Amino acid sequence: xxxxxxxxxTRRAVLYVLLFGTIAIGFGYRWLAxxxxxxxxxxxxxxxxxxxxxxxVLVAYGIWSTVHIVLFAVLYRRTLDGDRRPHPLxxxxxxxxxxxxxVRFLAWQAGYGAVxxxxxxxxxxxxxxxxxSFALLCFAVPLHEGLRWVIARDDGPRPRAGASLVAVAVGLxxxxxxxxxxxxxxxxxxxxxxxxxxxxxxxxxxSTAKRAAERGDRGAEGRAAYERGTRAAxxxxxxxxxxxxxxxxxxxxxxxxxxHRLLPKTAIDGHL
Length: 272
What we know:
Blueprint: H1 2-6, H2 10-28, H3 31-39, H4 42-46, H5 50-64, H6 67-79, H7 88-99, H8 118-122, H9 124-151, H10 161-190, E1 198-200, H11 207-214, H12 219-235, E2 240-242, E3 255-256, E4 261-262, H13 265-271
Parallel strand pairs: 1-2
Antiparallel strand pairs: 3-4
Helix pairs in contact: 2-5, 2-6, 3-5, 6-7, 7-9, 9-10, 11-12
């Protein structure tokens, strides 16, 4: 918010955002360059230019990952044109509205920053991650207003102290509601009449092995690892066994418990 406000023009503010995407996101996810190069088979497709192409893809990803902030920057700067600063709740709502637009790949949201705060995380029950983002920003935006009050008191419209307190109160109300609901959920779990024993299987099969399995090479290695973990979980009494995403790269056969045999492939769709 400080950078967007201090920029002399909206165009410069947008350039700051794109620069952030290129450097911060590009550096933070620099491992994607090697991923794109290896699994995109760029060495075979473009030869000596593979390294450059993979990094260009990463830069493009970093820039595109900030498209929602670019939109926010343009709209937020317009709210600063008058003689009064926008209400912190309006700023928080505007940011959330921009970040929920389905225009990004791996569209992370501000609310993910509250993952370690169970009460804030719990409000996702009522409004998903966007509501968590809004609750978190109810504290962040007033903090920005306070910093403006201390650092740049004579620069533009005065910060809205009363409105900031309202935003903080809304954030505290959401935090309190999440804390109350979290206690209810914990109590329901403790006093549940029935329960299900769950086993989590993580066989630590790397992406390279999965890629090989997709090509029909070493596919049994991953299956065997998950079979061992599944048998161990079942032996420990697990009634529901959960595997991670992409645990299998090929289709799975279903077991007919009554007939004690695998269902034929033609019967699987109808069975599901």
